[in-house]
Every structure is written in C-alpha cells, then in structure tokens.
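Input record, target 12 of the design panel.
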C-alpha cells in the first residue's frame, strides 16, 4: 500500500516537471529567424553594408519606426529633376550684361584731325581780313553819309568812297576763298562744326549783299531814292558780316 502511494507521488512529480519544461520551451522565442535576418542584413552588397534594424521591443525600434512610416520611398518616375537645365536662365542672365558691356568696349575711338601748315596760313589771312573790315566799314559808312546828305559832293569824297569800296571787295573775296577752303579741310572735324557752319552761312549772305551793293552803286548817282536804297543794302551786308565775325571771336569751342 505504501509502495503504491509512493509510486503515484513520483509519477505526479515527474509529470509536473515535464509540464514546466514544456511551458519554458514555449515562452522562449525562436531567435533563429531573427539571427538569419540580421546576418543577411549585415551582409555587404557590392562593398556597402546596410545598417542593421534595431531589435523589436527596444527604445531604438520605438524611435525609428514612426520615421520609417512617415517617409516612404519614392518611385523612380516621382524623383525630382536635378539636371542642370534650370541653371540655363541664370547663365543667360549673367551672360547678357557681359554681352552689353562687350559692345561698349568695341565703340569707335574718336579720330584725330590733323591740319596742315597751309590751313593755319589761310586762317591767319582770314583773321587779318576780318580785323581790317571793321575800320573799312566805319570809313565807308561815314563817307557815304556825307555824299548822301551833302549838297556839294566833292570829287575827293567820291574817290575815297570808291577806293574804300574796292578795298572791301578785295577783303571779302580773300576771306571768302580762305574761309571756304578751310571749311572744306575741317569738314571731318566735329569740334566747332556748328559754329563754322553758322559763320559760313552769314558770310555768304554778306557776300551776296556786297555784290548787290556794288550793282546798285551805279544807280545811286541818279537820284536820292536810289542812293538810299544803295545805303540800305550796304548796311545790311555790313551787319551780316559783323555778326558773322563777332560770333567767331566770342563763341569758342
């Protein structure tokens, strides 16, 4: 009887031990698959070793899991275009000012104008003639007024008037030739071009007036009206010549 009870107790004890071993084996996780995954993840691919994922249940896995879910991988057709085409407008915008600045350096330099010795000689003759006109104009006007207002027109006054008129004619011809010649030589010089052109127009108009004055001189001897008409033309010519000469003295380059 005692032996039977002891055998039952022994069998119950062994059965409880077996159950405990089975429970312990079921609780321990199978780490073979995890070890195989870790070894495959850690294996280098073409010289690059992929980072190993943290084990589940740890703090690192809790920190990296949301990031992995919030940043999904993009497909190849969804990747942004990182080519250098976007830099083309920038290059063009930088090149445009360079092209504009390049045109400024290619601008034509001012060309130097050289005048010959003959030009300066003619200019000197022209200036002397201009200075000589002033006393000739004054003398001709005074003598002409005396011939116009005097009742006794002496032969000496008439001779002096004719000589001074001839002197004015010589000065006008000389200044016209030297002035026109120098004007042609200086046609390519931009400095003082407007001044030379205005002076030339005024002096040519004065030349025309002097020719008309000489033509009307023969009729001035006939009547007082013709004499006054002759004086009006002469004064007009003298005024144009005085303005043309004075502007060259006062208007400098």
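The sequence produced for target 12 reads:
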């Amino acid at each position: 009887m005692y032996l039977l009870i002891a055998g039952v107790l022994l069998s119950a004890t062994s059965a409880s031990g077996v159950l405990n071993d089975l429970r312990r084996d079921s609780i321990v996780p199978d780490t073979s698959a995890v070890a195989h995954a870790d070894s495959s993840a850690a294996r280098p691919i073409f010289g690059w070793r992929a980072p190993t994922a943290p084990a589940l249940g740890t703090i690192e896995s809790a920190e990296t899991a949301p990031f992995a879910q919030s940043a999904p991988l993009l497909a190849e057709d969804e990747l942004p275009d990182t080519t250098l085409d976007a830099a083309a407008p920038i290059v063009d915008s930088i090149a445009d000012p360079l092209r504009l600045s390049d045109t400024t350096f290619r601008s034509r330099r001012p060309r130097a104008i050289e005048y010959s010795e003959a030009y300066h000689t003619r200019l000197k003759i022209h200036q002397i003639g201009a200075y000589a006109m002033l006393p000739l104009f004054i003398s001709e006007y005074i003598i002409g007024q005396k011939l116009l207002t005097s009742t006794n027109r002496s032969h000496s006054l008439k001779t002096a008037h004719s000589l001074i008129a001839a002197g004015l004619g010589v000065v006008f011809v000389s200044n016209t030739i030297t002035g026109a010649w120098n004007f042609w030589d200086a046609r390519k010089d931009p400095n003082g071009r407007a001044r030379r052109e205005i002076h030339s127009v005024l002096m040519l108009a004065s030349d025309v007036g002097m020719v008309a004055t000489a033509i009307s001189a023969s009729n001035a001897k006939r009547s007082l009206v013709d004499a006054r008409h002759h004086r009006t033309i002469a004064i007009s010519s003298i005024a144009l010549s005085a303005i043309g000469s004075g502007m060259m003295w006062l208007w400098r380059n």
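The chain has a mean pLDDT of 73.
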